[in-house]
Write a structure and sequence with these properties.
Elements lengths: L18 H11 L1 E11 L2 E12 L2 H6 L13 H49 L7
Antiparallel strand pairs: 1-2
Amino acid sequence: MTTPGRFPEPYGQGGGANLADILERVLDKGIVIAGDIRINLLDIELLTIKLRLVVASVDKAKEMGIDWWETDPALSSRARRSELAKENAELRERLAELETGRQEETGRSLETGRRQRADRQREADRPPEEAP
């Protein structure tokens, strides 16, 4: 009840908890907000949106088994390095396969060239045939 000449106290001052205390408590314990939005037309479901929001500290989230940010390359430099190392290894493997294929092809080309030179040499060494 207010007395004349005095304004009511602002929200939260009389309760003994300020915003920092409330935020600390929420982050320590965690809070989950869940909701669904459904749009129907003549009993036909057109759209369903499921909303889930978890607000917690990093430590609390890890306790709950939530750690997706550690493996997301957009959020973690460690994940980004891991992804780059994996891509680098795949590219090195592809390059090695290509080089092996080229060496085999080059080896075949060298062997074909040797045969062709040997055939030309035999042709050159053969005596000319006499006309009948």
